[in-house]
């Protein structure tokens, strides 16, 4: 498998994630799309690390995973509490914090 | 040194401490405050007499004694020490201030007996005396300036003593502000002196006057003159003096006789070496003096208010002193002699006027007086001696001192001497006229009293100072002038006149002065003594109307300074509101308006934020790529 394919996969995954974040209203789905983007980035890191033959990208990927895990905890907690009070997971309904 | 002169600081300290005690002690000192207030000037007077006696015992060249007290401002090369300069000139003033001042203090005990704030009054009086003593005893210009400002402050407090009267409050403010204009001149003069001579002490400055350029010395002289005109109520800063009559009458006596207005004459005489090095400034002093002598005399002719007539006469008499002081060493001694004699008779006249007002329920309109000679014999006699002294009746003090000034003015020579002398002579005629008018309207003629007024003689505590001052009015001139005593005594302090005249009344000018005096009195008699005086003022000629309105001094000040000043401030306010503030406000409104619109971007929709982030990230990446390529 050549690295170019992996980069293309990473690009495709990132695009799917980005489009998902922008067009979907369900908070859970948006959340998953964010994870998809993060993993696409991870894939790119790892691929470049392999291409260059050093571990910098691998280390970055681990960092991203750790931060993503923490972020999942906080994000899911927020989504759950919003769902409990509003009975909806649509991000368009949670729009009180504005001008 | 053991000369006893080093105790001179007590002169100032005593009234200063008692003034502080009375003002800080408050109501607790009400019961004995006036006694303390009288005691300390008397004690200062005793010290002054002692110092005077010691000084007379010394040979003339040793009568110049510098008492160094403490170092005030030791900053690098700038050293100001607080020191007292005891010389014949200073001691003359000390005796006048403490002597006449003490008499006025004693008189005030009776005059202010019914005033609940008598203690405060005495506190201010003591402050006034202390400040004036500091002024005349200082050995450098900076300490003199402290005393100068102290006098201004005390006069403000005393003129506005009845502060609940709007007219008194306004008069106090006016006196203070007009004085500030003069103080400005003095302070700038001191600054120029410091930059030119590197010191503010009298001695080094006067010794080095010749080393400075004529232009600088003339500037200093003119600025000192400005300071003197403010304190002495000379043209063009004369307007405060007549309004200052709003204060209690003893204050007027103190301001006009012993303190305050004499400060300007003192300054000019003390700074004599500067004026001698600047003939133009000196001539300006003489011209200002002569002009004010006439100006005050004309105002005095039109006033029906007894205190204002006397105030105008002070203006005029101080004008004579400035005229003499502007003649140089030929006139210094005469200026001081007239000042001291004036201290006696003017204090006596004011205390007499206060006594009359006391009897007439504070009525000041002379048209409501008349025929008081019979009911107030002591006031009449003492006031009468003061009157004879001021008009220059032969043998009384004003005769010797004023005649000497007029003689010296004519002896000055040239066109200037003749013109100034003629003005002084005309002033003497007018003085005789308006003072006779005061005399006739107050003490003679029919009784024009308001209903319910029952005049009575004043208590002894008021009449005794008047009697003492009347004795001074009679004797002072002869004591000072005969045999050239004053000239000789002051010689070591202010320099000797070039030629020494023995007093001789039978010169043409002396006789002309006498004739002017008689003529003025006769004119007054024909219009106010022979004919009955109407109780309401007749319309009068345009000169009378002008004199009643202080020769439009206030109108001139208003149109020349006040109105343009108001226009200037209004223009500046407009510029500030519309220009400076307008710029700032426009900017603020622009930022506010813009942010009001921009904040609409915060929609609350998470997805639009996400879109913004995405676009931003893409833009950043695109930019990076573009730069890289």
Describe the structure in your own words.
The complex is a heterodimer of chains A (99) and B (629). Helices cover 79% and strands 0% of the residues of chain A. By secondary structure, chain A is mainly α. The radius of gyration of chain A is 16 Å and the shape is elongated. Chain A contains three helices and no strands. In chain B, a hairpin with a 2-residue loop joins strand 1 and strand 2 (78-86). Chain B has 24 helices and two strands. Chain B is mainly alpha-helical and 629 residues long. The model of chain B has no long low-confidence stretch (mean pLDDT 86). Chain B has a two-stranded antiparallel ribbon. At the A-B interface, helix 1 of A face helix 24 of B.
Task: Note the main attributes of this structure.
heterodimer; A: 99 residues; mainly alpha; 3 helices; elongated; B: 629 residues; two-stranded antiparallel ribbon; 24 helices; 73% helix
Terminal CA distance of chain A reads 51 Å
Distance between the terminal alpha carbons of chain B, to the nearest Å? 98 Å
β-strand percent of chain B reads under 5%
For the biggest β-sheet of chain B, the strand order reads 1-2
Order of helices and strands of chain B: HHEEHHHHHHHHHHHHHHHHHHHHHH
- Number of helices, counting only DSSP H or I runs of 4 residues or more of chain B: 24
- CA gyration radius of chain B, whole angstroms: 30 Å
Q: Tell me roughly what share of residues is in helical segments of chain A.
A: over 70%
Average predicted local confidence, pLDDT of chain B: 86
Number of DSSP helices of chain A? Answer: 3
